[in-house]
Design goal:
With 230 residues, the protein is of the alpha/beta class. It has 9 helices and 8 strands. It has an 8-stranded parallel sheet with strand order 7-6-5-4-3-2-1-8. Bound molecules: pyridoxal-5'-phosphate.
Length: 230
Amino acid sequence: MLDRHLIEQRLSDVQSRIAKAERRYGRMPGSVQLIAVSKTRPIEDIAAAYAVGQTRFGENYVQEAVAKIHALRDLAVEWHFIGPLQSNKTRDVAEHFAWVHSVDKLKIAERLNAQRPAHLPPLQVCIQVNTSGEDSKSGIGAHALPALAAAVAKLPRLTLRGLMALPAPAEDFDGQCAALRPLHELWTQLRSLGLDIDTLSMGMSSDLEAAIAEGATLVRVGTDIFGARG
Ligand SMILES: *Cc1c(COP(=O)(O)O)cnc(C)c1O
């Protein structure tokens, strides 16, 4: 558990970095939202960040997340699932989260659509794209993206919001921009095909400025808020 003031200080530093990058790269003030990635962190750290105004939190592991969501159910947290998603875990995600960033197969999307409870609003979905072309990484390949996006957009209990990527770490700012740019290009292409999407989920602690320069609307930051994970 971290000191409450340390979390407050780090959150405010990250918010300043976001605001500064918005100005520097010609983005509208307030057009980039922060998701605090709280995987492996205790509920006390989440509550401390929430107490100073952070409402969006990202989690990667379904079981761990469901326990935290239950413990913090009295807080108005917007929970984002950002980890790899297997079909046997879709029900927990459909029942507990507002957003999922890591949809990369139609089968997974169809299960989430069928399992989203009727009393909740549609699940907000980003499709994870593998822009680096490595076979081992999760995310759909660029060639198959338009068909998947069109199919996901038709599912009534899901709202397709945009794209997510997790590129391999790059050496410097220019390398980070080069790694992130293809996601923006694919996003623009989908919009030109008529898909009504507004979200680009990219950028973490080490590349959030590059992500903002390249058009991110949601950045997912863990380490620079909560410290290095053990
Ligand atoms: C862990 C994680 C993050 C946060 O990474 P940091 O480097 O700790 O900021 C962002 N996105 C995803 C998908 C993650 O798994």
